[in-house]
Amino acid sequence: MDETTAGGTDETVVRYEPLTASDLAELVLGLAAVGVETVGRVVEAIRPPTLVTAVVKAPLTAALSDLGSKLRRADFSQELLRRGHSRRGELGRRVEVTAQRVAAAVVEAVLDVVDLTDIVVDHVDLDAVVSTVDLDRAVSRVDIDAIVSRVDIDAIVSRVDVDAIVERLDIDGIVARVDLDRAVSRVDIGAVIERLDIDGIVARVDLDRAVSGVDIDAIVGRVDIDAIAARIDLDAILDRVDVNAVAQRLDLDAVVGRLDLIGLAEYVVEEIDLPGIIQSSSGAMASEGMREVRWQGVGADERVAHVVDRMLRRRPRAPGPGLPATEITTRPVIPGSAG
Amino acid sequence: MTSPSRPGRDPVSRIVLPGPARSVQGHRAGIVTRVAAGAVDLVVALLGVALMYAAWAGTIFLLGPQSFHFPDPGGLRLLLLVLGLLTAYLTVAWATTGRTFGNRLLGLRVVDDGGRTIGLARAFLRAAACVMFPIVLFWVVVSRENRSLPDILLRTSVVYDWTSNAGRGHEPTSTPRAIVLPPED
Prior knowledge:
The structure holds two protein chains of two kinds.
Chain A: H1 2-9, H2 21-46, H3 50-73, H4 76-113, H5 116-123, H6 126-131, H7 135-140, H8 144-149, H9 153-158, H10 162-168, H11 171-176, H12 180-185, H13 189-195, H14 198-204, H15 207-212, H16 216-221, H17 225-230, H18 234-240, H19 243-249, H20 252-258, H21 261-272, H22 274-282, H23 288-311
Chain B: H1 11-16, H2 19-22, H3 31-63, H4 75-96, H5 101-106, E1 108-112, H6 120-132, H7 139-142, H8 149-154, E2 156-160
Antiparallel strand pairs in B: 1-2
């Protein structure tokens, strides 16, 4: 109607270009409009019911009369084209409204049939979509605390198969990638040790079992006892030992009691020829006078030999057979010749 | 007797002898002691002959007291008797104990080079030489080893040995029993 009104106000004649497809369509519409007007007149003439008169007759009648007046004042062809043009615009709007209604119904029906999720996943570039979303701002508007407070963490955790997760972990690979040196260098060993309950740990260690598993013999076999002994300052140790105190604590009686003194005495008597000693003591050896005579004889022998040797100007004689030097420690001492 | 001990070097002499005398045990004796011992042995022989003469005279007296008179053996016969008795005495003494009474008095012993008692033959030869030619004994004065001529010829020695036992220096005849401690109670 506005177009019609606007077309109505524009009294100037418009020269159209040679007919195009749209012009042709408008021409058809214009002809249709004339046909409608004619029908309207016919309807008015035959007096249609009141409702049709109220709804259709008035605007149509006005429009048709208006069109008629305009057509009378203008070139028929131009008028026809203008009317077609306006009618086309009106029909376009009606089609658009109708299309929107139809589209809503169609989309509803289509969605019932089509799985939109699959379509989205298959055909939509979600990354590109996400990249266009300002996630920070979205997150800032989310009340994380409230969400978390509504989450039953325990239930979630209870549903996690930790064993399966651990089995799938490449612990070795993880450890190999850990820079232990750097990690250790950051650890305050002193603080760790201070927090350790060493006594408690030791009390829980089964030392007997640990020691029983140690091959002491093998360890001892690898120890150089000689080298250790060589490094021991026995003199220093002995200096610190009170030998007298040790001797006082010795139970000599017990030691003597365990000795076979009779056997020992028999061995000594047999070794030193005690009967020979007794015989010598009670016989000639017992005579002090005889011993003196013998001693004087030995002295006289030595003196005579000494004099003869000096007369013959030779070295002192060796009257004895070659005896081991250990047995003869001193030259014979001759009575009267000493000094 | 595989390892004969030297006279005066056995454990007995080390125990019973005075210190100075110990040092000369086993040394060859000098002329003084040997002459003294010889003199003693000669006296012994003379005493022996005297006893024999007394026994002979006593026997004659018992057989005929009225016709008794001391027998007169004659000087040469008496001398031969003395020398013969002396030789026999020395031989037996040296071959058995190695020492006569004179040797025993002066602390001497006749041994061979090994320190052992000499045999009967060697003892007789030595005794005969010493009795018939006493002068050979004095080579001891000149000898650097205090050996007389019989000693040199017969390879014997006269050594100081103040111990009196003839069997001195014997090796222990049995292995001493091991000293075993009784088990501890």
